[in-house]
Structure prediction request, 314 residues.
Amino acid sequence: MSASASVRSAVLAREDAERGHRTRLFLAWMLALAVVLVIAGYGYDYYSLSAAQRPFSPKHDLLRPSGTIGIRLGMLGVLMFFLIYLYPLRKKWGWLGRQGNSRHWLDFHIVLGTTAPIIIAFHSSFKFGNIAGMAFWSMLMVTLSGFVGRYLYSQIPRNLSAAELSMKEIQEKEAALKKELAEQRATFGFAADALYQLPSAAEVAKTPAVISLISMVFIDFKRPFRTSLVRLQQAGFGAWFFSFFGLLPTRDHRLERAIKVAKTEAKLSKSIAFLSRTHRIFQLWHVVHRPFSYAFAILAIVHIALALFMGYRI
Prediction:
């Protein structure tokens, strides 16, 4: 087999792996959504009652925290949340770290972290008091900070194996993109700065960490609208209108290829500009995220122990 054929087969294998991961991730989200909707649909008439009315509901013995369904929801929520700890354990257990892709693990980590608080909320029948309430709010803070962490993770350029790229590799990648972008610009006449307005590295260095994070989010928030404007200018009103006001791709494949290259190059330029800040914020994020994770684990164990050994009936 020639070298080019080997490279081609390796690329195809990676593409198949990514396609399979996206399918599994989509199914995981759909399963989580289905479970939440089924519980919400079944228990709506109970959860919408006041605390004084609930004991008279025929579903009280099922859906109260210690009820037949309620206790199982609590067990499911806690199991899901403790499965989340497999992701950080990958860094400590060599055999686990060799299983799959770190980025893929992170995606399922997010699914579990998003769904678990909702399941726990159903378990508690939306009563968040005492130790159980403290555990829930700790878990919710873990989830919310997890979304921030996932965003920061995506801002650091990585290769397909989720290994972080060196600055030299990032700059080489940017140079290759700029070369292709120059060819696209000769045809369509717009540049990456039509999709992003980036601060200089010196400006970023002077900006506080929190403001830098807000700035990154705002730049990404504006991206779809800037892309819409580019489609309007380049493809005309008709194509722009029928592509849902430029928020979806048009039928002009050459234009869409040029937009894709421009967006990729601009995103990489943004990552380079904010790279040092992103690393710093990521370090600060761990300082916030980990204590809430440990606090939830401790509070959950205390709550379960009290429920088991003191015979709480709620």
